[in-house]
Amino acid sequence: MKYWVWLSSVPYIGPVTAHRLLETFENPEAVYRAETEELCKVKGITRRQIKSILDNKSMESVRKIMEDCEKNGISILAQNDLRYPVRAKEPEDSPIVLYYKGCIRNMASTVGIVGARRCTQEDKLRVAELTEKYVYDNTAIISEMAKGIDSYAHTACLKAGGYTVAVLGNGLDICYPSEHKKLMEHIIKTGLVISEYPPGTQPAKFRFPRRNRLISAWSDKLIVVAPGKGSGAFITA
């Protein structure tokens, strides 16, 4: 697992390049041990990326990530794990490593429910009704644990005894927003909380659109409820 974490954290090596490296070398340890001549054969790789791979062989940061995971009860899911959903692997920029808390289930069908942070009572009722309908159809609910529509979808799913997945844009040792700590704890008990970011990663505006692509990738369908202007829900759609 340490080589998967290493490859996912090498500077200038994003998910697309990581996938290309794995297509050439088959596993992260082979990438770690590769020489310049071998790395040059990877499609689309740049000199800066090759230099970054060769210059970042220290495992100290990887050890720190894995220690922090153990300390905070966070597990690591590599993309070669059979539990990694096939639907979530399809985008070329799918993370090669995910951090998670909770239980990973086989999800025959999924629906993403996202929307406005500020919403009406009518919107809340619509979300609850929609969520309950999908739960009764044995469909998993995917959202982002944000204020408003997203948190109502998670809550309605839990109340109906369903399975829900919360996708976060920060490390799982941090609850964001902080007032959703209880909700996060309840999701972890019966559902799943995931992030592509290691422990200690703070929530930041630029990370949320990247988080939204994972909601899209994990969802067979997407329902957008009462989105605000410039809303992240539109990015997800």
Task: Characterize this entry briefly.
The protein has 237 residues and is an alpha/beta fold.
> How many runs of DSSP E, i.e. beta strands?
7
Kindly state the mean pLDDT as a whole number? 92
State the helix count.
Answer: 12
Overall CATH class of the largest domain: Alpha Beta
N to C succession of SSEs? HHHHHHEHEEHEHEHEHEH
What is the helical fraction, as a range of percent?
40-55%
Give the C-alpha Rg.
19 Å
* CATH fold-type name of the largest domain: Rossmann fold
Strand content: 5-15%
Molecular structure report:
The structure is a single chain. The protein has 237 residues and is an alpha/beta fold. The protein has two domains: 2-58, DNA polymerase, domain 1 (Orthogonal Bundle); 102-236, Rossmann fold (3-Layer(aba) Sandwich), CATH 3.40.50.450. Helix content is 45%, strand content 14%. It has helices at residues 2-9, 15-25, 28-32, 36-39, 47-55, 60-71, 86-89, 121-136, 149-159, 181-190, 207-218, 232-236; strands at residues 75-78, 97-102, 110-115, 140-143, 164-167, 192-195, 221-225. α1 packs across α6, α8 (121-136) packs across α9 (149-159) and α9 packs across α10 (181-190). The protein is elongated, with a radius of gyration of 19 Å. The two termini are 33 Å apart. The mean pLDDT is 92.
